[in-house]
Amino acid sequence: MTRVVPVPDPPSRYRIEPTVMQALRSPRLLTREALAGLVVAIALIPEAIAFSIIAGVDPRLGLFSSFVMAVAISFLGGRPAMITAATGAIALVIAPVAREYGVDYLIATVILGGLIQIVMAALGVAKLMRFIPRSVMVGFVNALAILIFTSQFPQLIGVPWLVYPMVVAGLLIMYLMPRWTKVVPAPLVAIVLLTAAAVVFVMKIPTVGDQGDLPESLPFLFIPNVPLTLETLQIIAPYALAVAVVGLLESLMTAKLVDDITDTHSRKTREAFGQGGANILSGLFGGMGGCAMIGQTMINVKASGARTRISTFLAGVFLLILVLVLGDIVAIIPMAALVAVMIVVSVATFDWHSVRLSTLRRMPKSETAVMVITVVFTVWTHNLAIGVGVGVLAAMVLFARRVAHFVRVQRTVNDSAGETIVRYEVEGELFFASSNDLTTLFDYAGDPDKIVIDMSRSHVWDASTVAALDAVVTKYRQRGKEVVLEGMNDATTQLHTRLSGGLGAGH
To answer: Which residues does 301 contact at the CB level (< 8 Å), separation at least 6?
Structure first.
């Protein structure tokens, strides 16, 4: 007997399990979330410091931003298990502001960027994610994996030789340990063991403390000292808009990636609101702003198995505890341990299936081209927003070029009762790209006095096609021939009736 299963209501579609309450009631789940948050917090410290250096500000701004944003987004409704903190993409955008106008203008830019993100969320911009093709998503993921991997090069070039066996040891620990047990995240074990080895054997290798000074006090409310004038707005608005767009795009792409990994659905508009609120709070507490961190999110979701906002919240809390209370211990963690973690993350992030020969043979060349274009531009510019934007544009152009040839027109001649009638059957989706050549597919001079154009196997989508049909009819009538359009579906009939004759076609 066939059983009909109803489609879940929208609210249940977005219910992600385990929930926070389920995790709090389960010691096993809570332990997993807490350990995942600890691993992320440790990995956040050198990255936050590095991003602060890129932005040209004190390392404390990156660390405070990472703490505030991770805690804030866990309450403001960000995607469960996704990590939001200071990022390189935002650091690159705001660097000119800090360099030319100072920290106060930078903070004002971050706050305004958060406000713009909230406005964009209210306008439903997040829903545009559905127009990003899968080939762009795959290119985005692969480019991200490459960037994560190449960003480790500074820690592997011109360093003491002991760094290399330490990195190899870290990779082996993270590869072999999950085969034995998954109770404790392998990255955490690797960090602890390599740190212990570096201390016991007194290894002279780069450590987290070498990356910059750690803060010694809590973040406090910070109101930027900038004049509230139109001139100030003109200075910070372009950068704030860039912060909003780049941050939102990277966050929504990361959310979509985590959705795919965990087979769940998240609310993209809610994520956009959360990112805006987190950036505003980051600015008000003297942070440099940020967005979702794909590398740290992959550590949290893939390497550590976290699934709730608890891990995100604890990542922020542990980060603050580590730098304020355990700063001396954190400072001795070898960078080799964190490099090994990020290499494992980059390998796990890369979509290896997309570059297999069997996949490339089956995949349409246009899809592969879009993926490669996205990867090249993202890696070349080191800007995920630019790479995705170019990838989407390439996908649009190639799609329009492909569907432009999907329309077919078949001509048949019928002789009935001494009258010759030519019948054209138009098949396909008709819009501006596919209907451009429509007028060239008819024999205006050679056809008899009566022509029937059958539209029953086509659909008209826009004014360009209505104008093309008007041009066809006009060309026949100029030769004194009768044209009948038949078989239009209801939507096509309504559009054609409303626009036909008013677009100037053939006049």
So the answer is: 81, 82, 258, 261, 262, 307
Segment 346-372, tens digit of pLDDT: 887 788 888 999 888 888 888 999 999
Cβ within 8 Å of residue 243, ≥6 positions away: 90, 93, 94, 109, 110, 113, 116, 279, 289
* Cα angle, residue 184 at apex, residues 178 and 190 outer, rounded to 5°: 75
Token pair, residue 466, equals: 């209505």
CB 247 within 8 A of CB 289: yes
CA distance linking residue 152 with residue 208, whole number of Å:
14
Pairing of strands 450-460, 482-486: parallel
- CA nearest 339: which of 43, 59, 141, 89? 43
Residue type, 198: A
With CA atoms as reference, report the closest residue to 308 among 347, 262, 241. Answer: 262
Q: How far apart are CA 473 and CA 404, in angstroms?
A: 21
> CA torsion sign, 30 to 35 to 39 to 41?
positive
The one-letter amino acid at 505: A
Cα 470 to its chain centre, rounded Å, is 42
* Terminal Cα-to-Cα distance of the chain (whole angstroms): 63
Distance separating alpha carbons of residues 424 and 114, to the nearest angstrom: 56
| Cβ count within 10 A of residue 211 | 21
Q: What is the pLDDT of residues 398-456, one digit of tens each?
A: 887 777 666 888 999 988 777 889 999 998 888 887 777 788 889 898 899 899 999 99
Separation in Å, CA 497 to CA 476, 491, 494? 19, 10, 5
Measured between alpha carbons, how far is 322 from 146 in angstroms, rounded to an integer?
Answer: 29
Read off the tokens for 122.
Answer: 């209210």
Residue 159 phi, psi (nearest 5): -115, 165
Report d(CA 268, CA 259) in Å as an integer.
Answer: 11
CB 143 within 8 A of CB 250: no
Segment (H or E) for 186: helix 186-200
